[in-house]
Amino acid sequence: MFVYACPLRWSDLDAQGHVNNAVIVDYLQEARVAFLREGPASELLDSGVVVVSHEVEYHRPIGYSDDPVTVELGMAKVGASRIEIAYRVLQDGELAVVARTALCAFDFDEQRPVRLLPEHRAFFQEHLIDAERLRRIPAPDLDGRGASVPLAVRWSDLDSYGHVNNAVLFDYIQQARVTATTLWDPTMARAGTKGSDRLWLVVRQDVDYLVQLSHRIAPYALLVAPVKLGGTSITLATEFVDPGTGLVFARARTVLVCADLSGRPVDLGDATRAALEPHLV
Protein backbone atom coordinates (compact mmCIF):
# COMPACT_ATOMS: atom_id res chain seq x y z
CA MET A 1 0.00 0.00 0.00
CA PHE A 2 1.42 3.37 -1.04
CA VAL A 3 0.54 6.29 1.24
CA TYR A 4 0.62 9.94 0.17
CA ALA A 5 0.06 13.01 2.34
CA CYS A 6 -1.80 15.51 0.17
CA PRO A 7 -1.79 19.14 1.38
CA LEU A 8 -5.00 21.17 1.12
CA ARG A 9 -5.44 24.66 -0.28
CA TRP A 10 -7.99 27.21 0.86
CA SER A 11 -9.09 27.52 -2.77
CA ASP A 12 -10.07 23.82 -2.74
CA LEU A 13 -13.22 24.67 -0.77
CA ASP A 14 -16.69 25.15 -2.22
CA ALA A 15 -19.59 27.35 -1.08
CA GLN A 16 -20.44 24.83 1.65
CA GLY A 17 -16.98 25.21 3.20
CA HIS A 18 -15.87 21.69 2.24
CA VAL A 19 -13.36 20.48 -0.34
CA ASN A 20 -15.21 20.50 -3.66
CA ASN A 21 -16.06 17.08 -5.09
CA ALA A 22 -14.15 17.83 -8.30
CA VAL A 23 -11.00 18.73 -6.35
CA ILE A 24 -10.90 15.26 -4.79
CA VAL A 25 -9.96 13.85 -8.21
CA ASP A 26 -6.98 16.22 -8.24
CA TYR A 27 -5.89 14.72 -4.89
CA LEU A 28 -6.09 11.25 -6.43
CA GLN A 29 -3.98 12.44 -9.34
CA GLU A 30 -1.33 13.91 -7.03
CA ALA A 31 -1.10 10.63 -5.13
CA ARG A 32 -0.97 8.62 -8.37
CA VAL A 33 1.83 10.77 -9.81
CA ALA A 34 3.84 10.53 -6.56
CA PHE A 35 3.43 6.73 -6.66
CA LEU A 36 4.59 6.48 -10.27
CA ARG A 37 7.50 8.88 -9.80
CA GLU A 38 8.93 6.81 -6.95
CA GLY A 39 9.35 3.65 -9.04
CA PRO A 40 10.56 2.36 -12.41
CA ALA A 41 7.20 3.22 -14.02
CA SER A 42 7.99 6.94 -13.68
CA GLU A 43 8.84 7.13 -17.38
CA LEU A 44 5.22 6.29 -18.22
CA LEU A 45 4.28 9.82 -17.17
CA ASP A 46 6.67 11.16 -19.79
CA SER A 47 6.23 8.65 -22.60
CA GLY A 48 2.45 8.38 -22.31
CA VAL A 49 -0.30 7.11 -20.04
CA VAL A 50 -3.98 8.04 -20.26
CA VAL A 51 -6.86 7.82 -17.82
CA VAL A 52 -9.59 5.51 -19.13
CA SER A 53 -12.07 5.97 -16.29
CA HIS A 54 -12.66 7.19 -12.75
CA GLU A 55 -15.14 5.89 -10.17
CA VAL A 56 -15.42 8.07 -7.06
CA GLU A 57 -17.62 7.40 -4.04
CA TYR A 58 -17.90 10.18 -1.45
CA HIS A 59 -18.49 9.04 2.16
CA ARG A 60 -18.05 12.26 4.14
CA PRO A 61 -17.01 15.87 3.50
CA ILE A 62 -13.40 16.97 3.83
CA GLY A 63 -12.95 20.22 5.74
CA TYR A 64 -10.06 22.64 5.53
CA SER A 65 -7.04 21.90 7.68
CA ASP A 66 -3.35 22.76 7.80
CA ASP A 67 -2.78 19.01 8.04
CA PRO A 68 -2.78 17.01 4.81
CA VAL A 69 -5.31 14.35 3.94
CA THR A 70 -4.05 10.79 3.59
CA VAL A 71 -4.41 9.01 0.26
CA GLU A 72 -3.80 5.26 0.31
CA LEU A 73 -3.49 3.47 -3.01
CA GLY A 74 -2.66 0.08 -4.42
CA MET A 75 -3.00 -1.83 -7.65
CA ALA A 76 -6.40 -3.49 -8.04
CA LYS A 77 -5.59 -5.04 -11.42
CA VAL A 78 -2.61 -5.32 -13.76
CA GLY A 79 -3.17 -6.19 -17.42
CA ALA A 80 -1.09 -6.19 -20.59
CA SER A 81 -1.44 -2.46 -21.22
CA ARG A 82 -4.02 -1.41 -18.64
CA ILE A 83 -3.90 -1.08 -14.86
CA GLU A 84 -6.48 -0.21 -12.23
CA ILE A 85 -5.64 1.72 -9.07
CA ALA A 86 -7.80 1.63 -5.93
CA TYR A 87 -7.71 4.49 -3.42
CA ARG A 88 -8.93 5.45 0.03
CA VAL A 89 -8.86 9.10 1.11
CA LEU A 90 -8.89 9.75 4.85
CA GLN A 91 -8.98 12.86 7.02
CA ASP A 92 -8.09 12.52 10.70
CA GLY A 93 -8.29 8.75 10.30
CA GLU A 94 -11.89 8.81 8.99
CA LEU A 95 -12.71 7.45 5.56
CA ALA A 96 -13.88 10.24 3.23
CA VAL A 97 -13.58 8.82 -0.29
CA VAL A 98 -13.19 5.45 -2.02
CA ALA A 99 -12.16 5.55 -5.67
CA ARG A 100 -10.83 3.57 -8.60
CA THR A 101 -8.95 4.69 -11.73
CA ALA A 102 -8.24 2.74 -14.91
CA LEU A 103 -5.09 3.78 -16.79
CA CYS A 104 -3.60 2.66 -20.08
CA ALA A 105 -0.07 2.98 -21.48
CA PHE A 106 -0.45 4.95 -24.69
CA ASP A 107 1.58 5.94 -27.76
CA PHE A 108 0.46 9.49 -28.62
CA ASP A 109 2.27 9.50 -31.96
CA GLU A 110 0.48 6.39 -33.17
CA GLN A 111 -2.66 7.07 -31.08
CA ARG A 112 -2.93 3.54 -29.75
CA PRO A 113 -2.46 1.60 -26.52
CA VAL A 114 0.90 -0.12 -26.00
CA ARG A 115 1.97 -3.00 -23.79
CA LEU A 116 3.52 -2.29 -20.42
CA LEU A 117 7.24 -3.01 -20.20
CA PRO A 118 8.15 -6.03 -18.05
CA GLU A 119 9.74 -3.83 -15.38
CA HIS A 120 6.57 -1.71 -15.20
CA ARG A 121 4.38 -4.79 -14.77
CA ALA A 122 6.69 -6.18 -12.10
CA PHE A 123 6.54 -2.88 -10.17
CA PHE A 124 2.75 -2.75 -10.34
CA GLN A 125 2.38 -6.39 -9.33
CA GLU A 126 4.46 -5.71 -6.20
CA HIS A 127 1.68 -3.30 -5.14
CA LEU A 128 -1.33 -5.54 -5.83
CA ILE A 129 -4.03 -5.38 -3.16
CA ASP A 130 -7.49 -6.87 -2.66
CA ALA A 131 -9.90 -4.09 -3.57
CA GLU A 132 -13.64 -4.47 -3.85
CA ARG A 133 -15.19 -3.09 -7.02
CA LEU A 134 -17.59 -0.19 -6.70
CA ARG A 135 -21.16 -0.83 -7.76
CA ARG A 136 -21.67 0.34 -11.33
CA ILE A 137 -24.10 3.23 -11.83
CA PRO A 138 -26.26 2.37 -14.87
CA ALA A 139 -27.18 5.09 -17.34
CA PRO A 140 -28.12 5.04 -21.04
CA ASP A 141 -26.18 6.89 -23.72
CA LEU A 142 -27.81 10.25 -24.35
CA ASP A 143 -27.55 10.13 -28.17
CA GLY A 144 -28.00 13.88 -28.46
CA ARG A 145 -30.67 14.15 -25.76
CA GLY A 146 -30.54 16.33 -22.68
CA ALA A 147 -29.99 19.99 -21.88
CA SER A 148 -27.05 21.39 -23.85
CA VAL A 149 -24.65 23.56 -21.85
CA PRO A 150 -21.85 25.33 -23.78
CA LEU A 151 -18.41 25.20 -22.22
CA ALA A 152 -15.13 26.79 -23.33
CA VAL A 153 -11.84 25.07 -22.58
CA ARG A 154 -9.28 27.29 -20.88
CA TRP A 155 -5.61 27.17 -21.82
CA SER A 156 -4.81 26.46 -18.17
CA ASP A 157 -6.98 23.31 -18.33
CA LEU A 158 -4.34 21.47 -20.40
CA ASP A 159 -1.87 18.92 -19.05
CA SER A 160 1.71 18.13 -20.06
CA TYR A 161 0.45 16.15 -23.07
CA GLY A 162 -1.38 19.21 -24.45
CA HIS A 163 -4.85 17.78 -23.75
CA VAL A 164 -7.46 18.70 -21.16
CA ASN A 165 -6.41 17.09 -17.87
CA ASN A 166 -8.62 14.23 -16.71
CA ALA A 167 -9.39 15.91 -13.37
CA VAL A 168 -10.63 19.07 -15.10
CA LEU A 169 -13.51 17.10 -16.67
CA PHE A 170 -15.06 16.83 -13.20
CA ASP A 171 -15.11 20.63 -13.02
CA TYR A 172 -16.79 20.81 -16.46
CA ILE A 173 -19.39 18.23 -15.43
CA GLN A 174 -20.11 20.15 -12.25
CA GLN A 175 -20.62 23.40 -14.16
CA ALA A 176 -23.01 21.76 -16.60
CA ARG A 177 -24.89 19.97 -13.81
CA VAL A 178 -25.49 23.16 -11.84
CA THR A 179 -26.56 25.06 -14.95
CA ALA A 180 -28.95 22.35 -16.20
CA THR A 181 -30.61 21.47 -12.89
CA THR A 182 -31.30 25.07 -11.90
CA LEU A 183 -32.70 25.65 -15.38
CA TRP A 184 -35.14 22.76 -14.89
CA ASP A 185 -35.95 23.69 -11.31
CA PRO A 186 -34.83 27.09 -9.91
CA THR A 187 -35.35 25.77 -6.36
CA MET A 188 -32.29 23.57 -6.95
CA ALA A 189 -30.13 26.68 -6.54
CA ARG A 190 -26.82 25.73 -4.95
CA ALA A 191 -25.48 26.83 -1.58
CA GLY A 192 -24.38 30.45 -1.59
CA THR A 193 -26.76 31.51 -4.36
CA LYS A 194 -30.08 33.32 -4.16
CA GLY A 195 -33.03 31.05 -3.33
CA SER A 196 -30.92 28.22 -1.97
CA ASP A 197 -32.70 26.36 0.85
CA ARG A 198 -31.36 22.82 0.30
CA LEU A 199 -28.01 21.14 -0.21
CA TRP A 200 -27.23 18.91 -3.19
CA LEU A 201 -24.54 16.47 -2.15
CA VAL A 202 -22.51 14.48 -4.68
CA VAL A 203 -22.22 10.94 -3.30
CA ARG A 204 -20.94 9.18 -6.41
CA GLN A 205 -19.42 10.26 -9.70
CA ASP A 206 -18.00 8.15 -12.53
CA VAL A 207 -16.38 9.34 -15.76
CA ASP A 208 -15.39 7.32 -18.85
CA TYR A 209 -12.86 9.03 -21.14
CA LEU A 210 -13.38 8.16 -24.80
CA VAL A 211 -11.43 10.72 -26.88
CA GLN A 212 -8.64 13.15 -25.95
CA LEU A 213 -9.92 16.69 -25.63
CA SER A 214 -7.90 19.58 -27.09
CA HIS A 215 -8.00 23.33 -26.64
CA ARG A 216 -9.97 25.41 -29.11
CA ILE A 217 -11.63 28.82 -29.10
CA ALA A 218 -15.12 27.60 -30.06
CA PRO A 219 -17.01 26.13 -27.08
CA TYR A 220 -17.80 22.47 -26.75
CA ALA A 221 -21.10 21.32 -25.23
CA LEU A 222 -22.14 19.13 -22.34
CA LEU A 223 -25.44 17.28 -22.56
CA VAL A 224 -27.09 16.64 -19.20
CA ALA A 225 -30.21 14.60 -18.38
CA PRO A 226 -31.70 12.92 -15.31
CA VAL A 227 -31.89 9.14 -15.76
CA LYS A 228 -33.31 8.15 -12.35
CA LEU A 229 -35.28 9.90 -9.60
CA GLY A 230 -35.18 8.26 -6.19
CA GLY A 231 -36.74 9.26 -2.90
CA THR A 232 -33.86 11.54 -1.89
CA SER A 233 -31.53 11.16 -4.86
CA ILE A 234 -31.13 12.02 -8.53
CA THR A 235 -28.91 10.17 -11.01
CA LEU A 236 -27.69 12.33 -13.90
CA ALA A 237 -25.98 11.36 -17.14
CA THR A 238 -23.60 13.82 -18.80
CA GLU A 239 -21.81 13.67 -22.14
CA PHE A 240 -19.07 16.01 -23.33
CA VAL A 241 -19.60 16.47 -27.07
CA ASP A 242 -18.59 18.47 -30.11
CA PRO A 243 -21.86 20.24 -30.98
CA GLY A 244 -20.88 20.38 -34.65
CA THR A 245 -20.08 16.72 -35.24
CA GLY A 246 -21.75 14.99 -32.30
CA LEU A 247 -18.45 13.32 -31.33
CA VAL A 248 -18.58 12.19 -27.69
CA PHE A 249 -15.37 12.80 -25.73
CA ALA A 250 -16.49 11.56 -22.31
CA ARG A 251 -19.51 10.14 -20.48
CA ALA A 252 -20.30 10.64 -16.81
CA ARG A 253 -22.79 9.45 -14.21
CA THR A 254 -23.47 11.49 -11.06
CA VAL A 255 -25.62 10.67 -8.03
CA LEU A 256 -26.89 13.68 -6.08
CA VAL A 257 -28.59 13.48 -2.69
CA CYS A 258 -31.00 16.20 -1.58
CA ALA A 259 -30.30 17.33 2.00
CA ASP A 260 -31.47 19.99 4.40
CA LEU A 261 -29.06 22.71 5.50
CA SER A 262 -27.75 20.45 8.28
CA GLY A 263 -26.77 17.80 5.71
CA ARG A 264 -29.56 15.34 6.56
CA PRO A 265 -31.06 13.63 3.45
CA VAL A 266 -34.61 14.74 2.69
CA ASP A 267 -37.19 13.85 0.06
CA LEU A 268 -36.85 15.51 -3.34
CA GLY A 269 -40.35 16.87 -2.99
CA ASP A 270 -43.22 16.75 -5.45
CA ALA A 271 -42.33 20.08 -7.09
CA THR A 272 -38.74 19.08 -7.90
CA ARG A 273 -39.81 15.63 -9.05
CA ALA A 274 -42.46 17.15 -11.34
CA ALA A 275 -39.94 19.63 -12.76
CA LEU A 276 -37.37 16.93 -13.57
CA GLU A 277 -39.63 14.13 -14.83
CA PRO A 278 -40.19 15.67 -18.31
CA HIS A 279 -36.41 15.60 -18.84
CA LEU A 280 -35.89 11.95 -17.87
CA VAL A 281 -34.00 9.82 -20.40
Automatic annotation (TrEMBL):
According to UniProt, the name of this protein is Thioesterase domain-containing protein
Gene Ontology MF: a single term: fatty acyl-CoA hydrolase activity
Q: Which organism is it from?
A: Tessaracoccus aquimaris
Pfam families hit by this protein: 4HBT_2 (PF13279)
Please list which residues make up the signal peptide: none
